Amino acid sequence: MKSNWKDSEAKKLKGDLLKLRVYTSRLLGNNEDLVMHGGGNTSVKIKETNIFGEEEEVLYVKGSGWDLATIEAPGFAPVKLSALHRLAQLDTLSDVDMVKNQRMAMTNPSAPNPSVEAILHAIIPYTFVDHTHADAVVTVTNTPGGKKRIQEIYGDKILIIPYVMPGFILAKKIYEMTKNIDWDSIDGMVLMNHGVFTFHNDPKISYEKMISIVDASEKYLKKQGANAIKGKGKGKIDGLQIAKLRKKVSEVWNKPVLAKLDRSASAKTFSELSDVAKITSRGPLTPDHIIRTKRTPMMVSDSPKKDLEQYVKNYKAYYKKYNTGEQTLLDQAPRWAIVPGSGVVSFGPTVKHTRIIEDIARHTQRAIFQAEHLGGWKALGKGDLFEMEYWSLEQAKLKKAGKPKSMQGKVAIVTGAASGIGKACVESLIEQGAVVTGLDIAPAIEGMFPQKEALGIRCDVTSEKQLKKAIDETIATFGGIDMLVSNAGIFPKSARIADMDGKLWDKSLELNVTSHQRLLQLLIPYLEVGFDPAVVIIASKNVPAPGPGAAAYSVAKAGLTQLGRVAAMELGGKGIRVNIIHPNAVYDTAIWTDEVLQARAKHYGLTVKEYKTNNMLKVEVTSRDVADLATAMLGKTFAKITGAQVPIDGGNERVI
Predict the structure, then answer these.
(1) What's the pLDDT score for residue 371?
(2) Pairing between strand 298-299 and 188-191?
(3) Exposed, middle or buried by CB within 10 Å (0-12, 13-18, 19+), for 591?
(4) How far apart are CA 59 and CA 107, in angstroms?
């Protein structure tokens, strides 16, 4: 563990205590071995003059909902220190009263709720206080004789706090333990099964004490031979196994969720440990993780359905044993699963949520693996973990997510996604909450979409090998496939039948028809285990209203339409909807350059604007218009429609 403090950066802050607090908080937050995804908290005590001209000391403590990695000054809640000191002296204080009184003592009512550890930060008599859930330290505490090991590492320079619930109970415990202590005689506190506190009037010293304490535990683990997991080769991808698992977990969760496969060498090695089921059944790295990961992962065998049923049964038994009658049963779906030979699968309703689970699972695996070298992984007891999982203040965090978007948790594949209608479809679907794999032969597809909800894959859709690889990547990243926008195609150069180049004809049929059939065939097994599975085929106005010189294109699109009609009949019994869109005169695509538009408009004696709106409604049809229609057809609006052919052309006289 190395210090990332830079004097040159700190000097720019000119002694501003709150800015320095932001700076060191981010140093802590950007190190996953210290805190992860909203974990940990920091504070600074600042003397300020109130509206009455009176000087008072205010504790700026991390606000609820903020992440130390990205926190800014508004992310700290200002609370009157005197009020927090008085709360610490109470014999008892309920969670509701603690939250209420902390807010009442704030000097800025629009600031976020103070951390549940605000009272604890207040009673530590130093300007800067840092709290992390450092992996190495918690790993040492989560072993038989963990307290003795901590004493061996740090001697008398660390105050060891036995585990108690965070919030007022923890603050009261430390308040009683430190009444007669010389604070200057210790470098920090280790909270068993929980984390580390350091403190000082100098932000650099407080931060570097944290680094030093964690470094000592890391060196201890290394000295004991408790190294990180090593392995060779990536785990295998059994796409259908993952897709079926995702479907079953989603059903228990009562909504579609994503599933991300970590098949790294370390995850694969961990999944193949002979006692992996036993050691992962003992609990999480720290109780703070339990609202995200639940107490244990699910073990996956050759029968995922039975495995999930057993997981649910075990969870209900755990709930029944520790429920006091005041808690309402939460969903019983696992948040991560061990798949021997493949690795670890993480589940979540969004990409962000899923990646958080994956990160926590990865750190948990390492900690378990290391602790096993120190005599065995020994997490906090089930009763304490249940209390944390069902703690009202923790549950409140989960309720702040807001209403999900209509396609949250659903996965789509869009072909021809690097431009025009395909690109617009990717963007439209993401706006509705879906995650999307965009396929295109253009190299630019791989970096085209900055959104974490999009996966751009360079793929020749006429290659079955490349399609299979793209499907595997989609499954490993998102867990399943629910929707397909089959859009890839070319508009061949105009040629009359008598003059048709055979290669041009074959190329049009291969890309505009056969590649769609091949991809649909490959996806049917995945769509069968998808959520409200649906396919939208982008055909053309040339199907109902062809023109001379476009035989290669028109025949191919007509064949594609017929493919869609047959697919609707064959797949309807499996709950898979297939509908077709016939766009016309969509000019914001790559083939319609300004020069081409001007030439075509001139040919008809029209201005460019008149040419682009040459339809019954006198409106321009854009790629986004087509994309929004495709998204609607994939969603609830078309839930009971299949085999439909819908034109989007502003009203074409020949089609009508």
Answers:
(1) 96
(2) unpaired
(3) exposed
(4) 10
CATH assignment, 7-223: 3.40.225.10
Paired strand residues for 218: none
Largest CA distance in the chain: 101
Q: β-pairing, 41-49 with 128-132? A: antiparallel
440 Cβ contact partners less than 8 Å away, ≥ 6 residues apart:
415, 416, 417, 418, 419, 422, 456, 458, 459, 488
- Compute how many other C-beta atoms are within 10 angstroms of the C-beta atom of residue 30: 14
Q: What is the structure's pLDDT at 143?
A: 96
Q: Would strands 41-49 and 577-583 be described as parallel, antiparallel, or unpaired?
A: unpaired
Would you say 429 and 407 are in contact if contact means Cβ atoms under 8 Å apart? yes
**pLDDT tens for residues 322-379?**
999 989 999 999 999 999 999 999 999 999 999 999 999 999 999 999 999 999 999 9
Return the ∠ at Cα 349 (arms to 347 and 350), rounded to 5°.
Answer: 100
Instruction: Using only the alpha carbons of the chain, give its radius of gyration.
Output: 30
* CB-based contact 645:558 (threshold 8 Å): no
- Domain(s) labelled CATH 3.40.225.10 in the chain stretch across 7-223, 239-397
CATH 3.40.50.720 domain position(s) in the chain: 411-586+621-648
Bridging pattern class, strands 336-339 and 343-348:
antiparallel
Q: Cβ–Cβ contacts within 10 Å for residue 614, how many?
A: 16
390 class by beta-carbon count within 10 Å (0-12 exposed, 13-18 middle, 19+ buried): buried
Helix (H) or strand (E) holding 578: strand 577-583
239-397 falls under which CATH superfamily?
A: Class II aldolase/adducin N-terminal domain (3.40.225.10)
Distance in angstroms (rounded) separating the CA atoms of residues 571 and 562: 14
Residue with tokens 């130093």: 126
Burial (CB < 10 A; 0-12, 13-18, 19+), residue 37, is buried
Any idea how long the chain is?
656
Handedness of CA 181, 183, 185, 189 (dihedral sign): positive
Task: Give the per-residue pLDDT at 494.
Answer: 84
**Which class is 411-586+621-648 in CATH?**
alpha beta
Characterize 7-25 residue by residue with b for buried, 16 or more Cβ atoms within 10 angstroms of its Cβ, and e for exposed.
Answer: eeebeeeeeebebbbbbbb
Taking the CA atoms of 148, 152, 154 and 156 in sequence, report the sign of the dihedral they define: positive
SS3 label, residue 263: coil
| pTM of structure | 0.92
